[in-house]
Every structure is written in C-alpha cells, then in structure tokens.
Write a structure and sequence with these properties.
Helix content: 55-70%
Number of domains: 2
Strand order of the largest sheet: 2-3-1-6-7
Number of helices: 14
Shape: elongated
Largest sheet: 5 strands, mixed
Length: about 375
Amino acid sequence: MGSAEEKKHSNKIYAERLGNMFSFLVGNAYSFTAGVMGLVHFVLLITFWLSGVMPLVQFNVLSVVVYIFCFILCRTGHLLPVYASIILEVTAYTVVSSYYVGLKCGTYCFLFSIIPIIIYFGSSLFKGLQRWGVVLMLILNFVTFTVLYISFSNVPPVYEVPEATRTFLVIFSAFAMVFATLFYNAMYIYASEHEVTILEQKNKELSADAQEDALTRLLNRRGFLPLVKELMGNKRSKRFCIAFCDLDDFKRVNDTFGHEAGDEVLKHITRIITDEMHGCDICRWGGEEIVILMRDYDLETAKLKLENLRENIASSPTVFFKKEISVTITLGVAENNSSYKKPEEIIKAADERMYYGKQHGKNILIYEDMQLDEKEESEDA
C-alpha cells in the first residue's frame, strides 16, 4: 500500500515538473526558438567550414548573428520581427544551400521544419482575417520547395561535399524537420489543454464564490460595491478613501513572458497589496486594475500609505522560473465627501486621477483633480 502511495506521489511530482517545463517553454517559445535556430546554424557553420564550402560558412555566420538579434528582440517583446526573420532566414538558407551543395544534401528539409513554426506562432500573432496570411506563407513555402526541386534536381552543385558530410546534412536536416513538428505540436496541445484546464478551474471557483476573483482571491465588483455603498449610506461612518490602481505596461509582461507569468505577477502584486494595506477591502476591478477601500483614512494618511505601497511594488520583482519581472503601478486616490452620491462616482474620480498618472509618466500617485486644475489655469491665461 505504501509502495502504491509512493508511486502515486512520485508520478504527481513528475507530472508537475513536466507541466512546469512545458509552461516555461510556452512562456519563452520565441526565445527558445531563436536560441535553437542559432545553435543549428552554428553546427552547420562548423560542418561547411570543415568541408571547405566558404560561401555557406559566411551565410551561417550571418544567420547566427540574425538569431542573436532575434533573441534580444524576444526579451524586449518585439515578436513580429522575430517571426518574419525566422521565415525569411530559413527560406534564404534553403535556396542558397541548395545552389551550393545541391538537393542531395537534404537542406530543403528546413523548409518543412518551419511549417509548424509558421502555424504555431502565426495563430497567436494574428487574429481574424490576418490569419489568412499564415495560409499564404504556407503556400509560398510549398512554392519555394517546388521551384527549388525543379531548378536544381538536374543541376550539379557548385561544391561536391564528401559523402560523410552529405549523409550528416541529410540526417541533421531531417532531424530538424521531425523535431520541429513534434515539439511545436506538443507545445500547442499543452497550451490548449492547459488553457482549458485553467478556464474550467476558474469557472468552478467563480461559481463557488461569486463575490471573489478566482485568480487573486480578492473581492470582485459584486462583492466590493456593496461595501462602499454601505459606508456612503451610513451617516455615522467615518471618512474613507478609494484608491484606484493599475499595473503599468502589463500587456508587455504577457507578450514577453507569457500569460502564465502575467498571472504570477498579478498574484505577487496582490500579496504585496494585501500585506501593505492590512485592514482594507481590496477588489480586482478588472484585468490588472485593483481598487482599494481604505476605511477610516483621511487623504493625507492615505497618500503616505499608498506612496509606500507604490515604492514597495517597484522594488519587489516577481520571480518566475528564476527570472525577475519588475513592474510598477500607477495610483489615483479620492477621499469621500458629500459630492459623491454613489460608489461608482468616487471610484470614477479615483480612476480619472489614475488615468492622468498613466498619461503623465506612470509609476506615480495622483491625489488631486489635476486635469481640472490645468483647465482652470488655461482659462486664467
């Protein structure tokens, strides 16, 4: 019995590690691809150098440089240029290598190796009618192969490489094709199933508690608004403030590191806010927006507390698979007064101040009606 339990526990740990590995690869798919492609061309560089095919040595040096730049672009979130560079570089390499060493070396297999890359990355980069561009690229890929085969099938190559080199190139090119097909299909299957699993889990948690956000365990709007309404309707209640917070450039986090990393950042920021704003009611308003009900706070006290929160978040990066993801937060705060009749009105006031901060530098706390002040100044002028 103990052995069965141990085996079950061991399988669970193995499944978790495998899931973590796939999660990491999905979140870093572009960087991984650029790195592997650079390594492939480094191997080809050495192979052609040993065989004395200097034009292809020079071409592969250029290819390695291209993938180094692609890797850098991946880290900065510029994914479309990486996608285009991979397709253009592989196509160019296939044509040039077929010309210099002939079709018998099998380098045309690299054309087939990028088919799963075209589909996998294209499905995430393009939406709607743009996805017909993926179909067009697949057609052009096939046309390129057809033209190569017709053009070089009966033409002697510029360089006759040794038989051992030719055999290695055929096997290596075929391996690249098979690896790409298996790898990106596995990535797609995992990402699809994982997304469905997460969605089902979130739906279950949301159904269990309709007033709580499934990811962060904070209140949602349904649970938060009645608390503000109750305070506004209670004449004996003391003053309070509403803070509206929004993570800066959060889309870049998702685009660069993946949505799993984005979720982890949200949970990390949530823990910081919960610890820092102890005793406050905190709501995930939507996406990366968080609203805080600061009971018994006047504006001056709220400003000090929120400024500490802002600095804490800026100096506390999220650790995701040994990577540090730094984010900042922009906040707007409004103190309750008689001019606010509904919860939505004071929340809107805090939101507008936060939005002003977004438009004027980010990573800032706005506690006054700055837009109104500017308007009055322009009128006075």
